[in-house]
Design brief:
Layout (H helix, E strand, L loop, with lengths): L7 H10 L3 H8 L2 H11 L24 E7 L5 H4 L15 H7 L22 E4 L4 E4 L3 H5 L4 E8 L5 H10 L9 H9 L9 E6 L28 E3 L17 H22 L2 H24 L6 H7 L9 H13 L4 E6 L8 H25 L6 E6 L3 E6 L10 E4 L3 E6 L7 E3 L1 E2 L6 E3 L2 E2 H11 L9 E3 L2 E3 L16
Parallel strand pairs: 1-7, 1-8, 4-12, 4-15, 5-6, 5-7
Antiparallel strand pairs: 2-3, 4-11, 8-11, 9-10, 13-14, 16-17
Protein backbone atom coordinates (compact mmCIF):
# COMPACT_ATOMS: atom_id res chain seq x y z
CA UNK A 1 0.00 0.00 0.00
CA UNK A 2 1.57 3.32 -1.07
CA UNK A 3 1.74 6.01 1.67
CA UNK A 4 -0.16 9.27 1.19
CA UNK A 5 1.96 12.23 0.01
CA UNK A 6 2.92 14.77 2.70
CA UNK A 7 0.61 17.43 1.23
CA UNK A 8 -2.42 15.11 0.87
CA UNK A 9 -4.59 17.20 3.20
CA UNK A 10 -3.92 20.44 1.31
CA UNK A 11 -4.64 18.67 -1.99
CA UNK A 12 -7.87 17.31 -0.58
CA UNK A 13 -8.93 20.77 0.65
CA UNK A 14 -8.12 22.34 -2.74
CA UNK A 15 -10.34 19.71 -4.38
CA UNK A 16 -13.18 20.58 -2.01
CA UNK A 17 -12.70 24.28 -2.73
CA UNK A 18 -13.27 23.72 -6.45
CA UNK A 19 -16.54 25.16 -7.64
CA UNK A 20 -18.80 22.58 -9.23
CA UNK A 21 -21.90 23.31 -11.26
CA UNK A 22 -24.03 22.20 -8.30
CA UNK A 23 -22.12 24.53 -5.93
CA UNK A 24 -22.41 27.44 -8.36
CA UNK A 25 -26.19 27.29 -8.46
CA UNK A 26 -26.47 26.67 -4.74
CA UNK A 27 -24.05 29.42 -3.65
CA UNK A 28 -24.75 32.12 -6.23
CA UNK A 29 -28.50 32.30 -5.61
CA UNK A 30 -29.61 34.81 -2.95
CA UNK A 31 -32.91 35.98 -1.52
CA UNK A 32 -35.93 34.94 -3.55
CA UNK A 33 -33.69 33.35 -6.18
CA UNK A 34 -32.34 30.82 -3.68
CA UNK A 35 -35.84 30.11 -2.39
CA UNK A 36 -37.14 29.57 -5.92
CA UNK A 37 -34.27 27.22 -6.79
CA UNK A 38 -34.80 25.22 -3.62
CA UNK A 39 -38.51 24.93 -4.39
CA UNK A 40 -37.76 23.66 -7.90
CA UNK A 41 -35.13 21.12 -6.91
CA UNK A 42 -36.55 20.05 -3.55
CA UNK A 43 -34.51 17.61 -1.46
CA UNK A 44 -32.34 16.75 -4.46
CA UNK A 45 -30.73 20.21 -4.25
CA UNK A 46 -29.32 19.35 -0.84
CA UNK A 47 -28.32 15.85 -1.79
CA UNK A 48 -30.89 14.32 0.54
CA UNK A 49 -32.67 11.03 0.09
CA UNK A 50 -36.38 11.76 0.17
CA UNK A 51 -37.00 8.56 2.08
CA UNK A 52 -34.24 8.98 4.66
CA UNK A 53 -34.87 10.12 8.20
CA UNK A 54 -38.62 10.66 7.78
CA UNK A 55 -41.66 8.39 7.98
CA UNK A 56 -42.80 7.29 4.54
CA UNK A 57 -46.30 8.70 3.92
CA UNK A 58 -46.93 6.18 1.15
CA UNK A 59 -46.78 3.00 3.20
CA UNK A 60 -49.89 0.86 3.55
CA UNK A 61 -50.46 -2.66 4.88
CA UNK A 62 -48.45 -4.99 2.62
CA UNK A 63 -49.49 -8.37 1.27
CA UNK A 64 -46.00 -9.16 -0.03
CA UNK A 65 -42.52 -8.49 1.34
CA UNK A 66 -40.62 -9.30 -1.84
CA UNK A 67 -41.17 -9.80 -5.58
CA UNK A 68 -39.73 -11.73 -8.53
CA UNK A 69 -40.37 -10.33 -12.02
CA UNK A 70 -39.78 -12.78 -14.89
CA UNK A 71 -39.26 -10.48 -17.87
CA UNK A 72 -39.64 -12.16 -21.27
CA UNK A 73 -37.92 -9.71 -23.59
CA UNK A 74 -39.26 -9.64 -27.14
CA UNK A 75 -42.93 -10.25 -26.28
CA UNK A 76 -44.33 -13.81 -26.28
CA UNK A 77 -47.42 -14.37 -28.42
CA UNK A 78 -50.64 -14.52 -26.42
CA UNK A 79 -52.27 -16.44 -29.28
CA UNK A 80 -49.88 -19.35 -28.79
CA UNK A 81 -49.97 -19.43 -24.96
CA UNK A 82 -53.07 -18.19 -23.11
CA UNK A 83 -55.60 -16.53 -25.46
CA UNK A 84 -57.33 -19.48 -27.11
CA UNK A 85 -59.22 -18.66 -30.34
CA UNK A 86 -60.31 -22.01 -31.86
CA UNK A 87 -62.77 -20.53 -34.37
CA UNK A 88 -59.88 -18.90 -36.25
CA UNK A 89 -58.92 -22.31 -37.63
CA UNK A 90 -61.59 -21.98 -40.32
CA UNK A 91 -60.27 -18.58 -41.44
CA UNK A 92 -56.74 -19.63 -42.36
CA UNK A 93 -55.11 -17.15 -44.76
CA UNK A 94 -58.11 -14.81 -44.80
CA UNK A 95 -56.83 -11.37 -45.83
CA UNK A 96 -57.42 -8.87 -43.01
CA UNK A 97 -56.24 -5.79 -44.92
CA UNK A 98 -59.64 -4.10 -45.14
CA UNK A 99 -60.58 -5.14 -41.60
CA UNK A 100 -57.34 -3.64 -40.24
CA UNK A 101 -58.06 -0.34 -42.00
CA UNK A 102 -61.30 -0.13 -40.04
CA UNK A 103 -59.47 -0.74 -36.76
CA UNK A 104 -57.27 2.33 -37.15
CA UNK A 105 -54.31 0.15 -36.37
CA UNK A 106 -50.76 1.40 -36.17
CA UNK A 107 -48.48 -0.82 -38.23
CA UNK A 108 -44.75 -1.23 -37.77
CA UNK A 109 -42.38 -0.65 -40.66
CA UNK A 110 -41.89 -4.41 -40.82
CA UNK A 111 -45.42 -5.16 -42.06
CA UNK A 112 -46.83 -1.83 -43.27
CA UNK A 113 -45.84 -2.56 -46.89
CA UNK A 114 -47.22 -6.08 -47.04
CA UNK A 115 -49.63 -6.55 -49.94
CA UNK A 116 -51.82 -8.80 -47.78
CA UNK A 117 -52.32 -9.52 -44.06
CA UNK A 118 -53.25 -13.22 -43.94
CA UNK A 119 -54.85 -14.49 -40.74
CA UNK A 120 -52.62 -17.05 -39.00
CA UNK A 121 -54.38 -19.36 -36.53
CA UNK A 122 -52.17 -20.94 -33.89
CA UNK A 123 -51.07 -24.46 -34.76
CA UNK A 124 -50.80 -25.45 -31.10
CA UNK A 125 -53.41 -27.32 -29.08
CA UNK A 126 -55.05 -25.92 -25.94
CA UNK A 127 -56.80 -27.60 -23.02
CA UNK A 128 -58.61 -26.41 -19.91
CA UNK A 129 -56.88 -26.71 -16.54
CA UNK A 130 -57.61 -26.11 -12.89
CA UNK A 131 -60.84 -25.17 -11.17
CA UNK A 132 -61.07 -22.04 -13.32
CA UNK A 133 -60.94 -24.05 -16.53
CA UNK A 134 -58.17 -21.79 -17.83
CA UNK A 135 -57.20 -22.49 -21.44
CA UNK A 136 -53.44 -23.09 -21.54
CA UNK A 137 -51.33 -24.12 -24.53
CA UNK A 138 -49.61 -27.47 -24.91
CA UNK A 139 -46.38 -25.44 -25.02
CA UNK A 140 -46.69 -24.87 -21.24
CA UNK A 141 -47.49 -28.27 -19.67
CA UNK A 142 -45.79 -27.41 -16.38
CA UNK A 143 -47.53 -24.06 -16.11
CA UNK A 144 -50.82 -25.89 -16.74
CA UNK A 145 -50.13 -28.01 -13.64
CA UNK A 146 -50.21 -24.90 -11.46
CA UNK A 147 -53.29 -23.30 -13.04
CA UNK A 148 -54.86 -22.97 -9.58
CA UNK A 149 -51.80 -21.14 -8.24
CA UNK A 150 -51.65 -18.40 -10.86
CA UNK A 151 -53.83 -15.56 -12.08
CA UNK A 152 -53.80 -15.18 -15.87
CA UNK A 153 -54.46 -11.65 -17.10
CA UNK A 154 -55.48 -11.77 -20.76
CA UNK A 155 -56.36 -8.08 -21.05
CA UNK A 156 -53.05 -6.28 -20.67
CA UNK A 157 -52.47 -3.28 -22.93
CA UNK A 158 -49.68 -0.79 -23.53
CA UNK A 159 -49.01 2.45 -25.43
CA UNK A 160 -45.83 1.41 -27.27
CA UNK A 161 -45.46 -0.59 -30.47
CA UNK A 162 -41.65 -0.99 -30.55
CA UNK A 163 -39.44 -2.84 -28.11
CA UNK A 164 -37.27 -0.19 -26.46
CA UNK A 165 -40.07 2.24 -25.56
CA UNK A 166 -42.34 -0.67 -24.63
CA UNK A 167 -39.75 -2.17 -22.29
CA UNK A 168 -39.06 1.20 -20.73
CA UNK A 169 -42.78 1.66 -20.13
CA UNK A 170 -43.14 -1.78 -18.53
CA UNK A 171 -40.07 -1.52 -16.32
CA UNK A 172 -39.80 2.24 -15.61
CA UNK A 173 -43.33 3.51 -16.12
CA UNK A 174 -42.38 5.82 -18.97
CA UNK A 175 -41.21 5.65 -22.57
CA UNK A 176 -38.78 8.51 -21.83
CA UNK A 177 -35.18 7.90 -20.83
CA UNK A 178 -33.94 8.73 -17.36
CA UNK A 179 -36.79 7.32 -15.30
CA UNK A 180 -36.38 5.04 -12.29
CA UNK A 181 -37.09 1.33 -12.69
CA UNK A 182 -39.76 -0.48 -10.70
CA UNK A 183 -37.14 -2.33 -8.63
CA UNK A 184 -35.48 0.98 -7.77
CA UNK A 185 -38.81 2.44 -6.67
CA UNK A 186 -39.36 -0.55 -4.37
CA UNK A 187 -35.86 -0.21 -2.94
CA UNK A 188 -36.41 3.51 -2.39
CA UNK A 189 -39.87 3.14 -0.92
CA UNK A 190 -39.33 0.08 1.28
CA UNK A 191 -35.60 -0.26 1.89
CA UNK A 192 -33.76 -3.53 2.30
CA UNK A 193 -34.48 -6.69 4.26
CA UNK A 194 -30.83 -7.78 4.40
CA UNK A 195 -27.96 -5.34 4.90
CA UNK A 196 -25.49 -7.84 3.43
CA UNK A 197 -27.20 -8.08 0.01
CA UNK A 198 -28.58 -5.52 -2.44
CA UNK A 199 -32.28 -4.71 -2.23
CA UNK A 200 -32.59 -5.13 -6.03
CA UNK A 201 -30.81 -7.86 -8.00
CA UNK A 202 -30.93 -8.49 -11.75
CA UNK A 203 -30.28 -11.89 -13.37
CA UNK A 204 -29.67 -12.33 -17.11
CA UNK A 205 -30.66 -15.83 -18.21
CA UNK A 206 -29.13 -17.41 -21.29
CA UNK A 207 -31.55 -18.60 -23.97
CA UNK A 208 -30.88 -22.08 -25.31
CA UNK A 209 -32.03 -21.37 -28.87
CA UNK A 210 -29.14 -20.21 -31.09
CA UNK A 211 -31.62 -19.18 -33.80
CA UNK A 212 -33.70 -16.89 -31.56
CA UNK A 213 -34.07 -13.20 -32.40
CA UNK A 214 -32.39 -11.83 -29.27
CA UNK A 215 -33.72 -8.36 -28.49
CA UNK A 216 -31.09 -5.98 -27.10
CA UNK A 217 -31.80 -4.34 -23.75
CA UNK A 218 -30.07 -1.59 -21.80
CA UNK A 219 -29.33 -0.97 -18.12
CA UNK A 220 -32.02 1.72 -18.16
CA UNK A 221 -34.49 -1.10 -17.46
CA UNK A 222 -32.97 -1.64 -14.00
CA UNK A 223 -31.41 1.77 -13.42
CA UNK A 224 -32.20 4.22 -10.62
CA UNK A 225 -32.83 7.17 -12.95
CA UNK A 226 -33.35 10.29 -10.83
CA UNK A 227 -33.40 8.30 -7.57
CA UNK A 228 -30.18 8.00 -5.53
CA UNK A 229 -27.81 5.59 -7.27
CA UNK A 230 -27.84 3.09 -4.40
CA UNK A 231 -31.32 1.99 -5.51
CA UNK A 232 -30.20 0.75 -8.95
CA UNK A 233 -30.34 -2.96 -9.66
CA UNK A 234 -27.15 -4.96 -9.14
CA UNK A 235 -26.54 -7.34 -12.06
CA UNK A 236 -25.28 -10.80 -11.16
CA UNK A 237 -23.17 -12.34 -13.91
CA UNK A 238 -24.33 -15.71 -15.30
CA UNK A 239 -20.77 -17.05 -15.49
CA UNK A 240 -17.73 -16.76 -13.21
CA UNK A 241 -17.99 -14.57 -10.11
CA UNK A 242 -21.56 -13.26 -9.77
CA UNK A 243 -20.18 -9.81 -8.96
CA UNK A 244 -16.77 -8.66 -10.21
CA UNK A 245 -13.99 -7.43 -7.94
CA UNK A 246 -15.54 -8.65 -4.69
CA UNK A 247 -12.53 -10.79 -3.80
CA UNK A 248 -9.67 -9.17 -1.91
CA UNK A 249 -6.62 -8.45 -4.01
CA UNK A 250 -3.65 -10.78 -3.48
CA UNK A 251 -1.70 -9.70 -0.40
CA UNK A 252 -4.50 -7.51 0.96
CA UNK A 253 -6.05 -9.10 4.06
CA UNK A 254 -9.59 -8.16 5.09
CA UNK A 255 -8.36 -6.24 8.13
CA UNK A 256 -6.34 -3.94 5.88
CA UNK A 257 -9.23 -3.58 3.46
CA UNK A 258 -11.46 -2.57 6.38
CA UNK A 259 -8.95 0.11 7.44
CA UNK A 260 -8.75 1.36 3.84
CA UNK A 261 -12.53 1.68 3.64
CA UNK A 262 -12.67 3.48 6.98
CA UNK A 263 -10.11 6.00 5.72
CA UNK A 264 -11.98 6.42 2.45
CA UNK A 265 -15.21 6.91 4.36
CA UNK A 266 -13.64 9.75 6.32
CA UNK A 267 -12.49 11.46 3.12
CA UNK A 268 -15.93 11.03 1.57
CA UNK A 269 -17.62 12.51 4.65
CA UNK A 270 -15.45 15.61 4.32
CA UNK A 271 -16.20 15.87 0.62
CA UNK A 272 -19.92 15.57 1.21
CA UNK A 273 -19.83 18.20 3.96
CA UNK A 274 -18.10 20.61 1.56
CA UNK A 275 -19.86 19.81 -1.73
CA UNK A 276 -23.19 18.19 -0.85
CA UNK A 277 -23.14 15.88 -3.86
CA UNK A 278 -25.43 12.87 -3.16
CA UNK A 279 -23.30 10.68 -5.43
CA UNK A 280 -20.57 10.81 -2.76
CA UNK A 281 -22.93 9.09 -0.35
CA UNK A 282 -23.86 6.58 -3.05
CA UNK A 283 -20.19 5.65 -3.56
CA UNK A 284 -19.67 5.21 0.17
CA UNK A 285 -22.71 2.96 0.44
CA UNK A 286 -21.53 0.92 -2.56
CA UNK A 287 -18.10 0.38 -0.97
CA UNK A 288 -19.71 -0.80 2.27
CA UNK A 289 -22.17 -3.06 0.46
CA UNK A 290 -19.33 -4.63 -1.55
CA UNK A 291 -17.41 -5.32 1.65
CA UNK A 292 -20.40 -7.05 3.24
CA UNK A 293 -21.17 -8.96 0.05
CA UNK A 294 -17.73 -10.56 0.17
CA UNK A 295 -19.06 -12.82 2.90
CA UNK A 296 -22.64 -13.29 1.68
CA UNK A 297 -22.24 -13.81 -2.08
CA UNK A 298 -20.02 -16.95 -2.08
CA UNK A 299 -22.52 -18.79 0.13
CA UNK A 300 -25.43 -17.53 -1.97
CA UNK A 301 -23.88 -18.65 -5.27
CA UNK A 302 -22.89 -22.11 -3.99
CA UNK A 303 -25.64 -24.44 -5.21
CA UNK A 304 -23.78 -27.62 -4.25
CA UNK A 305 -25.79 -28.05 -1.06
CA UNK A 306 -29.14 -28.00 -2.83
CA UNK A 307 -30.76 -31.47 -2.57
CA UNK A 308 -31.58 -33.59 -5.59
CA UNK A 309 -35.25 -32.84 -5.02
CA UNK A 310 -34.54 -29.23 -5.98
CA UNK A 311 -33.19 -30.21 -9.40
CA UNK A 312 -36.10 -32.60 -9.92
CA UNK A 313 -38.38 -29.61 -9.33
CA UNK A 314 -36.60 -27.00 -11.48
CA UNK A 315 -35.14 -29.42 -14.06
CA UNK A 316 -31.58 -30.55 -14.74
CA UNK A 317 -30.77 -27.26 -16.49
CA UNK A 318 -30.75 -25.67 -13.04
CA UNK A 319 -27.32 -27.27 -12.53
CA UNK A 320 -25.87 -25.11 -15.32
CA UNK A 321 -25.02 -21.55 -14.29
CA UNK A 322 -26.67 -18.89 -16.41
CA UNK A 323 -29.62 -20.94 -17.68
CA UNK A 324 -33.12 -19.76 -16.96
CA UNK A 325 -33.67 -22.69 -14.59
CA UNK A 326 -30.52 -21.79 -12.67
CA UNK A 327 -31.65 -18.14 -12.55
CA UNK A 328 -35.05 -19.17 -11.19
CA UNK A 329 -33.36 -21.21 -8.46
CA UNK A 330 -31.05 -18.28 -7.70
CA UNK A 331 -34.10 -16.00 -7.47
CA UNK A 332 -35.55 -18.25 -4.78
CA UNK A 333 -32.27 -18.21 -2.87
CA UNK A 334 -32.11 -14.42 -3.12
CA UNK A 335 -35.62 -13.71 -1.85
CA UNK A 336 -35.14 -16.37 0.82
CA UNK A 337 -32.20 -14.29 2.10
CA UNK A 338 -34.10 -11.02 2.11
CA UNK A 339 -33.54 -9.48 -1.32
CA UNK A 340 -36.52 -7.20 -1.91
CA UNK A 341 -36.82 -7.41 -5.71
CA UNK A 342 -35.33 -9.91 -8.18
CA UNK A 343 -35.70 -9.46 -11.92
CA UNK A 344 -34.91 -12.26 -14.38
CA UNK A 345 -34.44 -11.16 -17.99
CA UNK A 346 -34.93 -13.90 -20.58
CA UNK A 347 -34.54 -12.73 -24.17
CA UNK A 348 -35.38 -14.31 -27.53
CA UNK A 349 -39.19 -13.91 -27.66
CA UNK A 350 -39.27 -11.55 -30.67
CA UNK A 351 -40.66 -14.00 -33.23
CA UNK A 352 -41.38 -12.27 -36.53
CA UNK A 353 -40.69 -15.49 -38.43
CA UNK A 354 -40.39 -19.23 -37.67
CA UNK A 355 -42.57 -18.57 -34.64
CA UNK A 356 -43.75 -22.18 -34.07
CA UNK A 357 -40.18 -23.47 -33.87
CA UNK A 358 -38.80 -20.63 -31.77
CA UNK A 359 -41.60 -20.22 -29.26
CA UNK A 360 -41.58 -23.96 -28.57
CA UNK A 361 -37.88 -23.77 -27.70
CA UNK A 362 -38.33 -20.66 -25.55
CA UNK A 363 -41.21 -22.21 -23.63
CA UNK A 364 -39.14 -25.31 -22.98
CA UNK A 365 -36.50 -23.02 -21.45
CA UNK A 366 -38.82 -21.43 -18.91
CA UNK A 367 -41.84 -23.67 -18.33
CA UNK A 368 -40.64 -26.22 -15.80
CA UNK A 369 -38.41 -23.72 -14.01
CA UNK A 370 -41.33 -21.32 -13.50
CA UNK A 371 -43.40 -24.17 -12.11
CA UNK A 372 -40.49 -25.18 -9.91
CA UNK A 373 -40.04 -21.64 -8.60
CA UNK A 374 -43.69 -21.21 -7.63
CA UNK A 375 -43.89 -24.66 -6.02
CA UNK A 376 -40.56 -24.17 -4.22
CA UNK A 377 -41.74 -20.87 -2.75
CA UNK A 378 -45.02 -22.52 -1.80
CA UNK A 379 -43.32 -25.46 -0.05
CA UNK A 380 -41.10 -23.12 1.94
CA UNK A 381 -43.98 -20.92 3.08
CA UNK A 382 -42.70 -17.98 0.99
CA UNK A 383 -45.31 -17.75 -1.75
CA UNK A 384 -47.91 -16.00 0.40
CA UNK A 385 -45.66 -12.98 0.80
CA UNK A 386 -43.64 -13.22 -2.43
CA UNK A 387 -45.19 -11.71 -5.55
CA UNK A 388 -44.28 -13.40 -8.87
CA UNK A 389 -44.94 -11.65 -12.20
CA UNK A 390 -44.43 -13.29 -15.63
CA UNK A 391 -44.74 -11.53 -18.98
CA UNK A 392 -43.38 -9.46 -21.84
CA UNK A 393 -43.77 -5.90 -23.12
CA UNK A 394 -46.67 -6.29 -25.60
CA UNK A 395 -48.52 -8.91 -27.64
CA UNK A 396 -48.40 -10.26 -31.20
CA UNK A 397 -50.69 -9.80 -34.19
CA UNK A 398 -53.31 -12.26 -35.38
CA UNK A 399 -52.11 -11.73 -38.95
CA UNK A 400 -48.92 -13.21 -40.30
CA UNK A 401 -45.73 -11.32 -40.94
CA UNK A 402 -43.98 -12.70 -43.99
CA UNK A 403 -44.85 -15.99 -45.64
CA UNK A 404 -47.67 -18.06 -44.16
CA UNK A 405 -47.81 -21.85 -44.46
CA UNK A 406 -49.72 -24.47 -42.52
CA UNK A 407 -46.73 -25.09 -40.26
CA UNK A 408 -44.79 -21.83 -40.28
CA UNK A 409 -45.57 -18.15 -39.72
CA UNK A 410 -44.48 -15.05 -37.85
CA UNK A 411 -46.30 -12.32 -35.93
CA UNK A 412 -45.67 -8.59 -35.63
CA UNK A 413 -45.88 -6.35 -32.55
CA UNK A 414 -49.32 -5.69 -31.06
CA UNK A 415 -49.86 -3.23 -28.17
CA UNK A 416 -53.65 -3.49 -27.82
CA UNK A 417 -53.78 -6.77 -25.89
CA UNK A 418 -51.48 -9.40 -24.44
CA UNK A 419 -51.31 -11.91 -21.60
CA UNK A 420 -49.28 -12.20 -18.41
CA UNK A 421 -49.64 -14.18 -15.20
CA UNK A 422 -49.09 -13.40 -11.54
CA UNK A 423 -48.88 -15.57 -8.43
CA UNK A 424 -48.46 -15.27 -4.67
CA UNK A 425 -48.21 -12.05 -2.70
CA UNK A 426 -51.95 -11.71 -2.14
CA UNK A 427 -52.91 -12.46 -5.75
CA UNK A 428 -55.92 -14.75 -6.22
CA UNK A 429 -54.91 -18.08 -7.75
CA UNK A 430 -57.02 -20.01 -10.25
CA UNK A 431 -58.38 -16.86 -11.90
CA UNK A 432 -58.53 -15.71 -15.52
CA UNK A 433 -58.98 -11.94 -15.71
CA UNK A 434 -60.13 -10.05 -18.78
CA UNK A 435 -61.25 -11.01 -22.27
CA UNK A 436 -60.29 -10.09 -25.81
CA UNK A 437 -62.39 -10.09 -28.97
CA UNK A 438 -62.65 -13.01 -31.40
CA UNK A 439 -59.40 -11.95 -33.10
CA UNK A 440 -57.35 -11.41 -29.92
CA UNK A 441 -57.04 -7.88 -31.21
CA UNK A 442 -59.00 -5.62 -28.85
CA UNK A 443 -59.97 -5.96 -25.20
CA UNK A 444 -63.68 -6.41 -24.55
CA UNK A 445 -63.66 -6.89 -20.76
CA UNK A 446 -61.57 -5.68 -17.79
CA UNK A 447 -58.64 -3.89 -19.50
CA UNK A 448 -55.42 -3.60 -17.50
CA UNK A 449 -52.98 -0.90 -18.56
CA UNK A 450 -49.29 -1.08 -17.67
CA UNK A 451 -49.95 1.74 -15.16
CA UNK A 452 -52.61 -0.43 -13.49
CA UNK A 453 -50.13 -3.31 -13.26
CA UNK A 454 -47.62 -1.01 -11.57
CA UNK A 455 -50.24 0.34 -9.16
CA UNK A 456 -51.20 -3.25 -8.26
CA UNK A 457 -47.61 -4.38 -7.70
CA UNK A 458 -46.91 -1.39 -5.45
CA UNK A 459 -50.18 -1.93 -3.57
CA UNK A 460 -49.36 -5.55 -2.84
CA UNK A 461 -45.89 -4.54 -1.66
CA UNK A 462 -47.38 -2.00 0.76
CA UNK A 463 -47.12 1.25 -1.22
CA UNK A 464 -49.82 3.73 -2.23
CA UNK A 465 -48.82 4.53 -5.81
CA UNK A 466 -50.46 7.98 -5.69
CA UNK A 467 -48.51 9.05 -2.61
CA UNK A 468 -45.03 7.71 -3.34
CA UNK A 469 -43.16 10.36 -5.31
CA UNK A 470 -39.73 11.90 -5.70
CA UNK A 471 -39.14 15.57 -6.46
CA UNK A 472 -37.09 15.97 -9.63
CA UNK A 473 -36.92 18.82 -12.15
CA UNK A 474 -39.72 20.60 -10.34
CA UNK A 475 -42.11 17.64 -10.63
CA UNK A 476 -43.36 14.99 -8.24
CA UNK A 477 -42.18 11.93 -10.16
CA UNK A 478 -44.15 8.69 -9.76
CA UNK A 479 -43.81 5.21 -11.18
CA UNK A 480 -47.43 5.40 -12.38
CA UNK A 481 -46.98 8.93 -13.79
CA UNK A 482 -49.74 11.53 -13.92
CA UNK A 483 -52.36 9.64 -15.97
CA UNK A 484 -55.03 7.58 -14.16
CA UNK A 485 -53.89 4.28 -12.69
CA UNK A 486 -55.88 1.86 -10.58
CA UNK A 487 -55.25 -1.21 -8.47
CA UNK A 488 -56.76 -4.26 -10.21
CA UNK A 489 -58.92 -5.39 -7.32
CA UNK A 490 -60.50 -8.26 -9.24
CA UNK A 491 -57.29 -10.30 -9.00
CA UNK A 492 -56.64 -9.74 -5.29
CA UNK A 493 -57.18 -12.56 -2.81
Amino acid sequence: MNPLPPDWQQTFERYNDAITRRQFFRQSGTGLGAAALAALLGNRALGADAAAGAPAPWKIAPKAKRAIYISLIGAPSQLELFDYKPHLQTRFKEDLKDWLAGQGERLTGMTSRQAAFPLAPSIFKFAQHGQSGAWISELLPWTAKMADDICIIRSMKTDAINHEPANQLVYTGSMQNGKASIGSWLSYGLGTLNQDLPAFVVLHAKHSSPFSNVQAISSRLWGAGFLPGKHAGVSFRPQGDPVLYLNDAPGVPRELRRRMLDGLDELNRRSYAAIGDPEIQTRTQQYEMAFRMQASIPELADLSKEPESTYALYGDEARNRGTFASSALMARRLVERGVRFVQIFHRGWDQHGTLPRDIASQCKDVDQACYGLVQDLKQRGLLDDTLVIWGGEFGRTVYCQGTLTETNYGRDHHPRCFSIWMAGGGIKGGVVHGETDEMSYNIVKDPVHIRDLHATILHQMGIDHDRMSFKFQGLDQRLTGVLPAKVVKGILA
